[in-house]
Design goal:
It contains seven helices and 19 strands. About 20% of the residues lie in helices and about 30% in strands. The relative contact order is 0.21. The strands form four sheets. A nine-stranded mixed sheet has the order 2-1-19-18-14-3-12-13-17.
């Protein structure tokens, strides 16, 4: 399929630049993928749309303050780096404690091997390699950990949010259940949930379990090849606890609905699913779910409204059909729904 088949026009004013005034107060569009029927509600109404006995699966990854500004020693230029993960594969699964990181940078073509930078607290970093993807390997003169980033880093808001991060983002760009630090971007579907809403869902007989997928920046980037089959997905680390696997397998065997909260949860569930059930443990995935690929485990999907020509839009199109999704997006635009990370929500049943 052509990448252009997943394009749509979106008025700039519908790209949410700030979170809703109160967490959990966003609008909710409910789509029945079998009939095409759409309902318009609010997030507080979600329990009435989830069948009792269903199991919702959430991603508990926590966003790292991964944006870090350095000064080039040779020119004095200010350069922004987005630290994606420790460069060593074994260190990608949790809290950072490494002196070698994989990163993206501003003014990317100028950031060559050997260039030296001064960071806050007199931390020195040197570019030691440039990967074929354009990502940089940076070696620091001492361990760079999450405590350092909490003091000196910034929340990595996506580029379509055209403002600097502030104190509000430190809270609102995290889910209320975020626990396992390691993401370079938020699993944004979860931003809509409050402790009160989770309690209401439990009261309505809806189960909840957690897994972890550390979100890489590539999740939100547009596809830049002409046909989607040419696109190579980035690889992301995930973990499925034994408790979650047992709960999912039990629900599936009993014919209860599995509701993935967010595309990251959906990708993890589909990646860890085998003929004998959901497999617990840790691994990584570069699964690319697009039209023509079937879902084997996920029955319903709770998600946000996604960017044009993105792998996320292709995933929801695989789940509900491209034409139905684009028609639904068109209706959402006409009704003034807010789009992207801080935007409104959608439940696809």
């Amino acid at each position: 399929m052509r990448t252009e088949d997943f394009n749509f026009d979106l008025p700039q004013e519908l790209i949410a630049q700030h979170p809703a005034e109160k967490r959990g107060s966003s609008r909710l569009l409910v789509l029945d993928r079998a009939t095409g029927r759409r309902s318009h509600a609010m997030m507080r109404d979600l329990p009435s749309f989830i069948e009792s006995g269903s199991l919702m699966v959430f991603n508990d990854s926590k966003v790292r303050k991964a944006r870090l500004f350095g000064i080039a020693v040779d020119t004095g230029a200010k350069v922004e780096f987005l630290l994606l993960h420790p460069a060593e594969e074994a260190d990608r699964n949790g809290s950072a404690s490494s002196s070698v990181w994989t990163a993206m940078s501003s003014k990317a073509r100028k950031q060559r091997v050997g260039r030296l930078f001064m960071f806050p607290e007199k931390l020195m970093g040197r570019i030691t390699a440039v990967l074929p993807s354009g990502e940089k390997i940076i070696g620091f003169d001492r361990i760079l950990d999450d405590e350092y980033l909490d003091r000196n880093g910034h929340i990595p808001l996506p580029p379509y949010i055209r403002r600097e991060d502030d104190q509000q983002d430190a809270e609102r760009y995290q889910t209320v259940y975020a626990k396992a630090i390691g993401s370079a971007a938020s699993p944004t579907a979860g931003l809509h949930f409050t402790p009160e809403l989770l309690a209401e869902l439990a009261k309505a007989g809806v189960g909840a379990e957690w897994l972890t997928l550390h979100v890489g920046l590539g999740t939100f980037l547009p596809v830049r090849v002409d046909t989607i089959e040419e696109h190579q997905m980035h690889r992301e680390w995930f973990s499925v606890p034994a408790r979650t696997a047992e709960a999912v397998n039990r629900a599936k065997s009993q014919g209860r609905k599995i509701v993935a909260v967010g595309t990251t949860s959906a990708r993890t569930l589909e990646s860890a699913w085998t003929d004998s059930g959901l497999r617990p443990g840790t691994s990584s995935t570069d699964i690319f779910i697009h039209p023509g690929r079937d879902f084997k485990l996920v029955d319903q999907l709770f998600t946000n409204f996604h960017t044009p020509k993105s792998t996320l839009l292709m995933l929801v199109s695989a789940f509900a059909g491209r034409e139905l999704i684009l028609d639904t997006y068109s209706e959402a635009i006409s009704l003034g729904y807010r789009f992207f990370s801080y935007g409104d929500a959608m439940l696809i049943r």
